[in-house]
Amino acid sequence: ELVDVTRECAHMAVLVGSKVWYIDKIASPQPLKVDHPICSLAPLHCTANGKVLLAFQPNEVIEEALRAPRARYTENTIVDPAVLRSQLAEIRQAGYCIEREEFIADIRRIAAPVFDFNGTVIAAIAVVGPSARITEGQIEALVPLTLRTAESISRSLGHKPYKDA
Question: How many CA atoms lie within 13 A of 48 on its CB side?
Answer without folding.
Answer: 26
